[in-house]
Amino acid sequence: MIPQYEEKYVFAIWSCYAITAAVLLLFLAYTLWRAARVRRELEQLDGQRRRAPAKPAREAPQ
Amino acid sequence: MSLSIDNLRCVRAGRTVFSGLSVDVQPGEALILAGPNGAGKSTLLRILAGLLRPDAGDAQFSGVSLTSERVEFQERVLYTGHLDAVKPALTVHEMLTFWADVYDAHHDAVGPAIEALALARLADHPVRTLSAGQRRRLGLSRLALIDRPLWLLDEPTVSLDADSAARVAALARSRCESGGVVVAATHIDLAIPAAKTIDPGSFKLEATEDGVTADDLVLSGDAW
Amino acid sequence: MRAFWALARRDLTLAFRTGGGGALGVAFFVITAVLVPFGVGPKPDLLSVIAPGMLWIAALLACMLTLDRLFQADVEDGSMDLLALSPLALELAVLAKCLAHWLTTGLPLLIAAPVMAITLSMPGEAYGPMVLALALGTPALSLIGAIGAGLTAGMRRGGVLTAVLVLPLYVPTLILGALAGNAAASGLDPSPYLMLLGAITLACLPLCPLVAAAALRLALR
Amino acid sequence: MWSFANPNKFMRVSGKVLPYTAVLAVLLFAAGLYQAIYVVPPERVQGDSARIIFVHVPAAALSIMIYLAMCISSLVALIWRHPVADLSAKAAAPVGASFTALALVTGALWGYPTWGTWWVWDARLTSELILFFFYIGYIALWDAFDDESKAAPAAAIFCLVGSVFAVLAKYSVELWETLHQPPSLTIGGEENVHDVYHIPLLMMMAAFWLYFVTLWLVRVRMEIRSRRIRAIRLAAARE
Predict the structure, then answer these.
(1) Which residues of A touch D219 (CB under 8 A)?
(2) Which of D101, D176, D179, D184 is nearest to D136 (CA)?
(3) CB-based contact, D221 to chain A, within 8 Å
(4) Partners of chain B (3+ Cβ pairs below 8 A)
(5) Would the CB atoms of A6 and D218 count as touching at under 8 Å?
């Protein structure tokens, strides 16, 4: 399954592909993890706000 | 030369400091800003000085608009903030001569300005050797140096003794008597006959459409 | 114009009374240049090759070191508020401060550079073009630096950030300045690079104060 | 574009678009990689090493494109105070920086068998390195401010100034390189590669671009949510 490349380029080619894949996937995973955390935090806060409807988001005239 | 503040709104770090702040001040009148810490006294003064942009509303001084003619508006303003804006390495006389140059005031006015706050004895002393109160007086002597109709004073009498505070009050009074407008955040009585007192923090109105901020936008609407 | 010169004069006075004028910057420049032979060895042929580049790097480090105080002192003590409200346009105030900054950092380097060039075995015929290149390029260093100083003016500890922001902006000036010095050192005509250096400074003269003033207005909010 | 000034609208539309860009990115990566690894023949001059262009060139091209996009965003944020534009530039910067780093690393890996050295002060690699510094400065500037409303315009100013100086640096680096006689072999001879390389390269470019768009949407959504969290917290502190 693994294609045969010229001997002197094999390392360069596969390391380029591997590093690119690693960076793209790790960055994606990291971003998704952070985004999920932010999302959970917001859902929690929004839930608290809904349970306390007497306090609207915008300031009411005093 | 009247000052009219119209529907001013300010949001700082996501917090509405005041909104719908409107007040008219006639020539010769003073506007005293009172209220607790965080009421927006300094913020209002910095907005009127054109250093901060209001999130909505406008102010006009003798027909000049703060938001659309900021430079012209600022040419009528004399501002003193919490900080004295003095350099320890310069002498009292040099410091005032510098501000006279920058504000296009006459050099002849430097001597009287030094005397107006009783600094004549210290004229050739470096600012480094002055006490906090003396530095404050040096900062305030710009009021006697530069001739501008709209004064914005932020806690001018902090760290001043009674005599110096009285001198500052007298300067503010004479500014009003000659038809100017003084806006001051202060706890002492400036003894200006025609003075209004407001608490900027008490102005809290529902935001108008044009004053919607980024935070309002993310707060309005349903959760996503 | 009176306000412009008053501000430049005040900054010069302050520099002389508190910072020893340009002396500290020159001292830094000289020490950096002296460290080079310790780092790369004393061989004259090697030193003469890298001399123009090393002088330029020492010059831009010396210039950058004094940048974070360019506006920060005035922002901290409230002077910048009053300058922003004065009849002097903030852009011109920035230009005046850049002028004072150049007179206390850039100009002394022009005098120190030939001396350091001797210690770095730079060929004699390159002295003139090297000083000319510094004369044309160092004003751009002060002007470009004002942008970085303006962006970090409101921060309590902006020093390292100023360096990270400003050093990449110095790349074109550094390349052209070193090219002029190298060309002269190898007997070629440095004038095209000198002209390009002059062009950068001329373009920075109106544009950098504009940007730096916009950044300062942000810092005052 | 103006309707996206409302974060609510942006959240709604971006939520719908996101799955499509993600799926398309995966499909294009699969197709492009299959072509790049199995189908494309070795190049005439550079042999199999030319396969590296399929990751090197898209990363390098996008690193520049993303900076340009950040400039446009910054300009919009500065002039019209568009409340999503500053977040858009902020969200794009780390993606751009990582593409720049990738372009540098793959360039070095390509350079080793070709030139016999990991790093050469080649004009393109050098300009890429300088661009990387501008990304770093931009991100550092955002992080240095406590107050987001101050950070956004400052970062926008730096982004625009940086773009001007990045172009200046590119031209001066080219001038500098021609005088320092670089190695005769330049890397990434995209201009003279064989035609069979074009289609897979375009596919990989599109895949990288869609990857960026997907990640950017996720990050902008995250930034808008963080802003909402902050606003709720401030509203709570006020009561």
Answers:
(1) 31, 35
(2) D101
(3) yes
(4) A, C, D
(5) no
- pLDDT: is B210 or C109 the higher one? C109
Query: Min CA distance, B57 vs chain A (Å)?
Result: 18
Instruction: Check residue D5 and give its pLDDT.
Output: 66
Tally of domains in chain D: 1
Determine if residue D117 is left, alpha or beta; phi over 0 gives left, psi from -120 to 50 gives alpha, anything else beta: beta
Tokens standing for residue B121: 């004895």
User: Cβ separation of D227 and B221 shorter than 8 Å?
Assistant: no
Q: Which amino acid is at D186?
A: T
Which token pair is D158? 């730096």
Is D232 an interface residue toward A (CB < 8 Å)?
yes
Q: Amino acid letter at B61?
A: F
Which residues 6+ apart lie within 8 Å of A44 measured at CB? none
| Residue D133 included in any domain | yes
CA distance C130 to C181: 5
What are B121-164's pLDDT values in tens digits?
Answer: 998 999 999 999 999 999 999 999 999 999 999 988 888 888 88
CB atoms within 10 A of CB D75: 17
Contacts of C155 in chain D (CB under 8 A): 144-145
Judged by 3 or more CB pairs under 8 A, whether B touches A is yes
For the whole model, what pTM was predicted? 0.89
Q: Could you please report the per-residue DSSP string of D147-158? A: -HHHHHHHHHHH
Range of the domain at D87: 53-238
Q: In this structure, what token pair is assigned to residue D112?
A: 């080793």
Three-class DSSP category at B175: helix
Query: Is some CB atom of chain B closer than 8 A to the CB atom of D15?
Result: yes
Cβ neighbours, 10 Å, residue D205: 19
Nearest to B224 by CA among C213, C164, D227: D227
**How many whole angstroms separate alpha carbon B203 and alpha carbon B54?**
14
Pairing label, strands B77-80, B64-65: unpaired
Percent of residues, chain B, with pLDDT higher than 70: 90
Inside any domain, residue D48: no
